[in-house]
Amino acid sequence: IKKYKLKPIEFQKTVLKGFFSKLIDINELASNLSTNSSEKDIHNLKNYILFTLQELDIEEFSPTVNEDFRTQNGVNAHSDVVETGDETKNGKVVKALKKGYKVTLDDGSVEIIQNAVAQVYKFVEEKK
């Protein structure tokens, strides 16, 4: 980092070049897969992607079931809700539909890269 201290643009280009190189590798691995690919090939691709995310300090996270999605950073509600007559369940996560991804920065702050998605309860009053 010291050698790039006076040249932030050069540092950014170097970081981006490394990132783009990883994406190109993943694209090539995926292109070589076919409908006849073995489970081993698919497993190897998934491992490569996992190692790349770890190298970039990107972490997966999932919505917490039975907790209100609105209090969970980086969690969106899916439009397919589960209706309930129990008002205390309103907004609580039924199940995680899609994982989210985040990175923790040097200052300790968390940047959400992609939000997680959850199916949630929606309170509906019973008709009298």
Q: What's the average pLDDT?
A: 84
* Strand fraction: 25-35%
Please give the number of β-strands. Answer: 7
The rounded distance between the terminal residues' Cα atoms is 68 Å
Q: What structural class do you assign from the helix and strand content?
A: alpha/beta
Number of continuous helical runs = 2
Major beta sheet summary: 4 strands, mixed
Percent of residues in helical segments? 25-40%
Describe this structure in words.
32% of the residues lie in helices and 27% in strands. The chain is an alpha/beta fold. The strands form 2 sheets. Strands 2, 3, 4 and 7 form a 4-stranded mixed sheet that branches. It has a 3-stranded antiparallel sheet with strand order 1-5-6. α1 (8-31) runs antiparallel to α2. It is flat. The relative contact order is 0.15. The mean pLDDT is 84.
Set down the secondary structure blueprint.
Elements: H1 8-31, H2 39-55, E1 58-61, E2 75-77, E3 82-84, E4 93-98, E5 100-104, E6 110-114, E7 116-123
Parallel strand pairs: 2-7, 3-7
Antiparallel strand pairs: 1-5, 4-7, 5-6
